[in-house]
Structures are given as C-alpha cells and as structure tokens.
From TrEMBL, chains A, B, C, D, E, F:
This is 4-hydroxy-2-oxoheptanedioate aldolase. One of its GO terms (cellular component) is cytoplasm. One of its GO terms (molecular function) is aldehyde-lyase activity. It comes from Prosthecomicrobium pneumaticum. It holds the Pfam family HpcH_HpaI. Its EC number is 4.1.2.52. Belongs to the HpcH/HpaI aldolase family.
Length: 256, 256, 256, 256, 256, 256
C-alpha cells in the first residue's frame, strides 16, 4: 500500500480519525468509514501497549496508515509503535531541540537515530520479509510528528524543525491556547491560537516538512486544510459516538 | 432508582441503545447520551459473559436500566444476566409455549419459575442488602421480553402471551420479514412486516403486557412509538459510530 | 498430586474456596491460603470460559484440586472444564434422572458416558503424557457433583444417586430453602432446609457416594462437617474480601 | 475472495490449521504460514465467544476462510460464529438426524433453517453491504460440517447425510476410536478407525457432500488426502509450537 | 461529590484502600466497604494503564475519590491518571526538588505546571461539561502526593515541601526503614522509622500541606492518625483477602 | 528452586526461550518444552505490564527462572518485573556508565541501588514469607543484564562492566551489526559482529560477570555456547511457531 509519507506528499490534507477508547473495533470501523488514516491516542486516550498492538493489527490489514500518539516523553513507546506496525508517531510536548532529538533517536535507525531493530510484528502485518530493504527505507517512510503546543516550543520552532529526522509538527490547539492564555482558558479558536496556527505553518513550509493539527469540529478542519495543513485530525471517537447517538435520539424525541 | 417495570408503566415509549461491540465504555456512553436504557446484545452482538458483566457494571451505577439479549435458547445466561444486574432480558426466537416456559423458568423465582438464587453482583451494584425483600419483588420488577420473529411465533402469539411470567414481547423485524417472505428477502418495512407489527401490538395490549420492537432508523422508531410500542430499540452502536463519523467526514469533504 | 477423589476418600470434610470474581489471582490466593481445593463458580459467579481456563491454570500447578460450577444445563462446559484441568464439576439444578444422565454423558468417557476426547490443556497442566493411562483412570478420578436444590430433586434423589457416573451430590441451601418455602423466603438455616440436609446425607451414604454442601458461614460449615458432609464450600471471595476489609476498618474506626 | 465452498469444490484437500490457544495472533500466524484455512476450536480448545470474534477478525482480512468448532450442542454459537465472519462451522457429536437438523436450523436462513439475521460483524469484515445479496447466497456458501465420531453417528450416517443443509461431515478419529474400542483405548490409527474413515468417505461421496477429518500428523493427513478427503485439519497450535521449540532445542542440545 | 482536597481539609485522617490486583471489582468492593477513598497501585501493584482506567471507572461513579500510585518516575502516567478520573496521584521516590518539580509539571496546568489538556474520560465519569470551569479548579482540587522514602528525600524535605504544586507528602515506611537501616532490614516500625514519621509530620504541618502514610496494620493506622496524619493507607487487597480467608478457615479448623 | 544466578554459575550455557506474543500459555509452553528459562520481551515483543505479570505467573510455578526484557530506558519496569517474580531483567541500549547506574538503581536494594520494596507478588509465587531473608539475598540472586548493542556501548564496555550491580551483559547482534555497519545493513553474522561477540566475551570474563547473547538460529546458539557464552536466547515464539507449521505443511505438501 502507499506509505503515509507518500500520501502526505500527494497533498490534499489527510484526515485521520482519533481513537481514545481502547477497543480495536473502533479503530477498524474508522478505517472502514472513510478516514485516510487512523490515530490511536495513548496520551489522553485510554490505550495500553497491548491494546495499541491489537488496534494497529485491526487497521493495517485494511491498507490504511496507522499512527500512535505516545504519552509525554515515552519515546520507548514510539519505537514500539513502529515495531507494532504504525507508520507514524505523534509525540506530545516537544518543547526543545533536546526533546526533538530524543524523539528522533527512538524513531530512526542509525546513523540518523538509535531506533533498535525488531519489527517482527510490522513485518507480519505488512508481509515484509526483506530486512535490509526495510532498514533502507524505514527512516524515510516512517513519520515523526513533533507536537508544538507550548510557548517554549513556539520559541524553539525553527530549531526543532531543523532537527534531522523530525518529519513534521503537529499542533495541539488546546494546550497551545492554554499556554498562550497563561492558563486562563482553553479555547482552540482564540485569536492568539489561530495566529499561531498560521505562523507555525509558515515555519513548517519553510523547513520543507509536514504540518499537522487537531480539529475538534469539521469547521476547524476545513479551515486548517484551507490554510494548507497536510494532516488534520478530525474529532475523536467519543465525539463520533455522541454525535451519532444524539442525531438519532433528537430525530425521535425533538426538543420541546 | 425507578425500576424498568415502573418506567415502562409510566409510558411514552422507552428508547434503548443497542450495543454489540463488547466494550463497556460504549454502553456507558449510551447511558450518558440520553437513552432511557441500555441493551447489550449477545445474540448478534459480540459480547461474552464476562464482558456483559463489565458492561452492566458500567451502566447500572448511572441509574439507567440495563437489559441483555441472550443467545438463542441460552436461558442459563438469562438468569446470569439478572444476577449481573440486568433488569430485563430479551430472549430471541421464542416460538412456542414451551420456549416461553423455559424462558420464564430462568427469569422468575419459584413458584412462578425456577430461577436460582445468587444475585451477589446485582446486590453490590444496586446497594441492595435485604435478600428477602429482593426475593419478594424480583419476579415483578425484572422484565422478560420474548422475541416474536417467526411464523410459528405469530401463530402461537396468544398462547405465548398467556404464559405467566412473560412480561412482554419484543419484535424482531429483520427475522420476521424474512420468514414472512419465505426467505426471499430481509425488509424491515415490508407491508407484511408492518401489518405484523400492528397485529402483535393488538394482541399484546389485549394481554396486558409490554410491547417492544427494534428500529433501525429514527423514522421507524417514531412510527412504532406512535403505534403504541412501549419499548423501542433505536439503532445500534455500529450505526451511531458510522453516522457520527460520516457526518463529520461529509462536512469536511463534501461529495463532488 | 493426590486426586480429588482420593482426598474425598481420605475423609475429614474438604473445604473449598468459592470464587466468583473472574480474576485468576483470587483463585490462586485461595489455594495458597489453606483451602483444600478451589471452586470457580460460573453459575452465579462472573467467569466466562476463557477466564475459567486462566483460573484453573493458576490453581492446578499449586497441587490443589480445582472444580468448576457450570451454568444451569451447560454440560458442554462441564466437559470443557475437565479439559481445562478441573478435577470436579458441580452441576446446578439436577432435578431428574434425565438431568443426571445428561451430566454424566458430559463427564465420563464411553462406555459410561459420552465425554469427548481432548484434554490437551489438562495434560499440559499436570504433566500427563500417556493418553491411554488418562483414559483408563479419568472416569474414576473426575468427580461429578449433582446439585440437589429443588423439591423435584429431593423427590428423585434416590434415582439420581443410582445413576452410574454421578459421584456425589452438592446441596444448594439457598435454592432449596426457597423451594421448601414455596418461594416465600430464602433462609439457608430454616428447619425444613436443615432437615433436608440431614435427609440427603442419609441417602448419599446409603448410595456410597459423596455429599457436598455450600456454607455461607463457618458455623454452617462446622455443622455440616459434623453431620458428615465430605465436601463443604466455605463462603465466597466477596465474603472473604468484605470480611477482611471490615475487620481492618473496624479496628481503626470502632463504631461509636 | 473465493468462498470456502468454492475452494472445497476446487478439490485437492484443503489443509486447515487448528487453533486452541485463545490468542488471535496465533490464528493470524497460521493464516500467513500457508494453511488454506484456519479453524478456531471452542470444544477442546480454550476460546470464549469474544476471543473467537477477535480471532476471526485477525484471519478474515487476510483472505483465508475461517471456521469455528463449537462446543457440543451449542448451536447458538454456530449462528454467532457465522455472524462473526466464519464461513464454516464444525459441530461435534452429531449423532442423529435430530442433532443434524438442530445444527442446520442454526446454520441456514429460512426456509431451509432458522438462522437469525444479524451479520453486522461479518459485513464489516468482508465489506459486504447488500443484505439481500448475502441472504440469497449465505445458505449456499456457509459450510456446516457435522462431526461423525460415535457408533450412533456411524449407524445414522446415511440419514444424517440426507439432511438438507448438512454440507459435509468431519470425522473425529480420537472419539471414534474410543467408541469403536468400547472405551478401552484412544488410537486414531486403529484398524477399526481406519476402516471407518474409508467407509464414511464412501457414504459422503454417495451423498455428494464434503468429507473432512482431523489428522494429528502429516502422515495421517497425507493418507486422508490420498483417500479423497476434501478438508483435513493438520495438527494443532500446541503441536506446531512444541515441534518448533523441540527442533531448535534438539539442534543445539543433541541427545547424548 | 466532595473533592478529595475538601475531604482532606475536613480532617480526621482519611482511610484509603490499596489495590494491587488489577481487577476493577476489587477496587469497587473497597469503595463500597467503607474506605474513604481508593488507591490503585501501579508501582508494586500489578495494574497496567488500561486496567487503571477500568478500575477508576468502577470507583468514581460511587462518589469516592480515587488515587493512583504511579511507577517510579512515570510522570506521564500521573497526567493520564488525572485524565482517567483520579483525583490524586502518589509519586514514589521523590528524592529532590527536581523530582518534585517534574511531578508538579505533570500534575498541574500552566502556568503552575505543564499538564496537558485532555480530561475527556474524567468529564464523562463526573458529568463535568464546562472545560474552563474544570481548568480553573483542577490545580486546586487534584492532589499531588510526593513520596518521601529515602535519606535523600528526608534531607531535601523542606525544599520539596516548598515546591509550589506539591500538595502533600506520602511516607513509604518500608523503603524509608530500609534506607535508614543502610539496607540491613525492612522494619516499618523501627525506632528510626517512627522518629522519621514524626519529623516528617512536623515539617509538613509547617509547610501547610497534607501528610499521608502507608500502614500495614490497623495498629499502625491508629498511631499515624493519632499523630495527625491526614491520609492513611490501610493494608492492601492481598491482606484483606488473606485476612478474610484465614478468619473463616480458622473458625472451621482451629489449630490443634 | 535453584536461582538463576546459581544456574548461571553451574555453567553450560543456559538456553532461554524468547516470547514476544503476549499470551501466558506460550511462555508456559516454552518452560515445559525444555528451555532452561523463559524471557518475556517487552521491547520488541508485544507485552504490556499486566500481561507480563500473567506470563510470569505461568512460568514461575513450574520451577524455571523467568526474565523480562524491558523497553528502552524503562527502569521502573525493571523493578516491577522483579516484584512480579522475574529473576532477571535484560535492559536494552545500556550505552554508558550513567545508563548502567540507572539500571542498577532499579534492580538492587540499598545501599547498592535504590530498588523500592514491594515484592508481594513474587512472594506469593515463590512461597517466600521472610522479608528480611529476601532483602538479604535479592541483590545477589536477581540478575541485571545490560544490553551491549551500540558503538558507544562497546567503547564504554569496561566501565559498564565495572559498575557494581551489573551482573552481566547481553549482546544484541541485530542492533550491534547495524551500528557497526553505520546503518547500512542488519546482519547478525557479519564479521564485525562476530568479532565483537568475541571481544565482548573477553571483557566480560575479565570482569567476572555473565555473558548473554541472542541467537536467531541453532547454529548461532551452538557457536555462542562454544565461545563460552553463559546465557543464550534461542529464537523467538514467532520462529518456533512458523518452524513447526512449516514443517508440518511441507511434509504434507512437498514443494514441486
Ligand atoms: Mg496537547
Ligand atoms: Mg432476530
Ligand atoms: Mg443454587
Ligand atoms: Mg471429538
Ligand atoms: Mg516505597
Ligand atoms: Mg537490540
């Protein structure tokens, strides 16, 4: 199947589902429903490592790229996610060059990084059998998204983008809005946050890397894709579920 | 909390969610989203017995009645569902008085039935501590829904409804439509099926029992509630999820 | 290790733990705590079949016999429990000779019964490697306890005991007390129930089989062992846990 | 993908793996390793219903047919296995026409049987979206294998084969050898058993149905395929694993 | 419900259960049995992250505060525990101001810390719907307990207590006794350890923060509450279970 | 049972199985099949922490030592593995004295390290009841294997071996071969890698510590044992399984 990297290169703004309930059937259902790719969220979502393996196993055979957002600083899990068949990893709270380098170390084989060899599960899922072919292409085809979601990260953005092995950034509008408001409010659409989204994109474009972002609503996703974001997370499983249930209930029991 | 029986008596057509993915968080989410009650489906859904226990444990503390549809003929599971905290059980393919009596045997304590004593888990979930108080009211408060979904069942409907301990019927439009079409098609809204839904309701009303039915769409649910059905299953978790995902995706990527 | 049958023959009134929470660590803990054997309860307890396998796997290596109480009428599970390493099965609601024969069919290899061959897991757990040696002794060493807990069962007791392959009976005082009270109360120590416990023992002794019974409290267990019961279930995991927690809390926070 | 029925029709003796350890990764690995199809064993294997669903979900996307052997008499599970994506079900201990008809009732939609409608999971796994197209072909494409493994079954073989909806038989050599030896021994290669294997095949051929059988060793599988068996189970997961481990250990630590 | 912080402020020495067996039913049972709150132990207990989520889900709806002890240095899990509905986190081996600051970073939103936004699961469990209301109160209401259990930690105690965002300390008597004995023995009631418990309390009081401690026995809990400890862990699930089992067994089989 | 340390001292080159599929039955099967010990791999294998606990629980009662390979840098898990009953831990990517010291801190009680007290589960599994006896011997009997698998590690080997508490090294031929080839290839038998294996052994012998290594094939294992390696991992569960399946399939369907 086409790699995540090649799909990003094809342009258009990939839409990923965002799955926090640790149930592989939900990840699978989102892949079948038309999302371009599937992201399993270990940071604010509820997956443990074995669950992530099961969830990836439900998505990869369907020919859709799968990503994992790892917990803060859990770069060992970034490597494990790749071993389990993920094509991309989103690392939260990459606030400095040091953070970025630690992330790259886990994501890329030597000499670029220090990823350890062991993709047995990924090979099973994809049918790969040629170790050296995989070694030769893995650093190019796996995608490391560094989350930019603090003032420190904004300040260091250029340097983070310059780290070899960081393939793109992923903007976290909730956290970024909080930090931009000095903790006073969470507002993904505050003017400061929206300006940041534009500024980050300019920097990413200049660096020749990918720009991703989380959108709670379709309206946000439309705006981010219009701005030029390459990779947009659209809602979460909890939102899909509630939206579907509410639509059906409201149709039967209209508000008085 | 108000019992399922008393909520049925209050009228208005209770709406139940229908959960087939064996993930307690989905059952819980549906209870929080506004359904009147939650049904876990073991027949065509994917739950095993331990999962059902976990799912009931996620719903009962929220003050919403929970029901379980058991596999065909698995009346031992009907008893177990009550032990685990369900207030109602839906038994598929009750085609004869003998089927109905076997179902009642599992659902009701002696002398009405032969339900075995052991509601330890239900007591923990509801805070009940008085065994004899529970024994005295359980047969009245737990609800046995016999599914009417074959020609044989239609033919025996009056006799099934006359079985003491059968509290209501639940219509399965898919199976009933197939049998009415001699296997030629599944069509929940075929004229024959719609006529059957009306006929069954008349018989149920005459017997002074509850009438339930499965609705795939809001339109069906509205019609069944308008007819006078007391208990209507509205869609399934797979439908809620797909509906929500599709709504979001379509908003972002309108069809060309 | 000594078989359950030989331990019963050694006399003294075996004490079994009774585990309903589907967590192998509890079954294991009870084996280590001094019970003579461990019973996993699928009828009113919360185990599914895979859980039972895990629970048996936690007990058998410790050299303690394990038993399973199956759901009502689930004789296929009786066979599976033996395959999974249980040495005994307790079948609820054996109310007739027909029930007893169906239970024996699942518990004993031909020609006595119709148990199907497949003890792969039991062999792994016990280190058995000689299929024909196991076949030769299994019918003798596995123990089939038929629960006597209804008026019908009492009436048929002699005939049930005469069924070849029924190794013993197990008295269910809660259900038996309900049926003896015509559904009016559950009272494991009602005079009628206590008389029944004595009468059943006389019949079992006459038939040369084993007598088991469930005791909620130590006082009941002492009485039943004094009467001559061979196998006594003492409390349940929920009781052990609550007793231990309450003892500690009460010691710290004495009631005013 | 080609249906199980069409693969059987293509001839050559399909080889199925036989998985008893309730771990989807083993089922998946066997599909990838070259077996023609995968069978999950619930009778003597260790799967519960949720596990079977996970295991089927790991096999079906790989384009290999999956089958489930259900516990004795658990025909409700036969229907559920089809709902979960199995293409075939093997039912143990089909000893009479009544057994065969009960099995057919669960496997085939009306009017041939009484299978209940609800293949939501199977549709998700296979991408099917046309309910009536599935209804029209399901009875033809799902395969009901009745196990012949007792003297009663042998005596009734012609009548069992004549039951419309029984697509084939599956021989259980362990049980059949025990019954043929009047319980004296289990010997899958006893002369009586080998004669039975030949006799059964003649009857099956005459009836125009499929013949399956379980082979513990490659030698048995070769013989059965040479005889003309259409479907041969080859070993079990425990055997594969032990064989692989032993081969590696023996290579490093040759016996003195 | 009243927050953990307000319950601590109400005084009296809260008693928490301590659950190491990764079974939500045990956590739930302890909440129902009378403990003031429930702690799930990931350090020496056996929980993984998904289990913790299930365990918290079983406790929070009962209106009892739940806490999680995270593995050493796993501050990402501290944030996740809050997201999953815990009100408090106990972090082991906080030996320095740097450790304390890293813990605070995970526990508190900006500008006090760097906790990332994502309490979807906590909102579902508690019914919270107002993101900014939660943001405004979370830093005040969630409780960060730093474990003091080494010589280094004792030496740095004042400075650790001075870290803004550390809400209290939790004393680990086993580890502290080992370190105070230079590794020679573990003795939770050694004179050195008891002196440390008093000294720590003085420092905590001076700093205006909460003091917690682990008590193996009721006697220890009584003493610590008498000293003025605000939060006392009383035994563990393994102790409750063994105590209850032993009490019942000893009542039936008194020692000779 | 004999400790892992004493078995290493007995010489001969212990053979460990290597289990990556998170299924306790596989770990158990490998212990029964003749391996000297069992290693559960959390780095490239698929285990989460709860699974590791279940897997260790399946191995330790069989009297075989169990080890865990933890994820990169997850030293908290090293402590937890010991608490769960592992006798040894293999830590990947120990590239410096600082890494080695952090690993020792997690593995050894004070004053040598900073391991925290809490072996409740290990005590249950082994029957240990004397806390101070365990404290006195644990640092000697648990085995800390530092993985040497990078150029940095090779350069620091002498210093790493000199760290008190590091009991041995474990060579990772895949990673070491990649780093020695500057990322150009993975080749466990490259001349550079084979030379490294010899050089490392010389250094380990000089330091009086244990040498372990991973062998994919029996031939590699034979060579490493002949060189003098004390502890050799032989293949993985995926290899055992595939080898066994392929052997059976090839015997039935010989290549044309
Ligand atoms: Mg964020
Ligand atoms: Mg139906
Ligand atoms: Mg009973
Ligand atoms: Mg058989
Ligand atoms: Mg400690
Ligand atoms: Mg390595």
């Amino acid at each position: 199947m086409a790699s995540l990297a090649s799909r990003l290169a094809a342009g258009g703004g990939l839409l990923t589902s965002w799955i926090g309930i640790p149930e592989p059937l939900l990840a699978e259902a989102s892949a079948r429903a038309g999302f371009d790719c599937v992201t399993l969220d270990m940071q604010h979502g509820l997956w443990g490592p074995e669950g992530v393996m099961r969830g990836l196993g439900a998505v990869v055979p369907l020919g859709k790229p799968a990503l994992v957002r790892v917990p803060v600083g859990d770069f060992a899990m970034a490597s494990r996610a790749l071993d389990m068949g993920a094509e991309g990893v989103i690392a939260p709270m990459i606030n400095s060059v040091a953070d970025a380098k630690a992330f790259v170390a886990a994501m890329k084989f030597p000499p670029l990084g220090a990823r350890s060899w062991g993709p047995t599960r990924a090979f099973a899922l994809t049918g790969e059998t040629d170790a050296n072919a995989y070694l030769a292409r893995a650093n190019r085809e796996t995608v490391a998204f560094a989350m930019i979601e603090t003032r420190e990260a904004l300040a260091a953005l250029g340097d983070i983008l310059a780290v070899d092995g960081i393939d793109g950034v992923f903007v976290g509008p909730s956290d970024l809005s909080i930090t931009l408001a000095h903790g006073a409010a969470v507002d993904q659409r505050s003017p400061a946050m929206e300006q940041a989204a534009r500024d980050i994109l300019v920097a990413v474009r200049a660096a020749g890397k990918w720009a991703g972002i989380f959108a709670i609503t379709p309206a946000q996703a439309i705006d981010y894709r219009a701005l030029g974001y390459d990779f947009v997370a659209l809602g979460t499983d909890s939102i899909y579920l509630r939206l579907g249930m509410t639509a059906m209930l409201d149709a039967v029991r209209p508000a008085g």
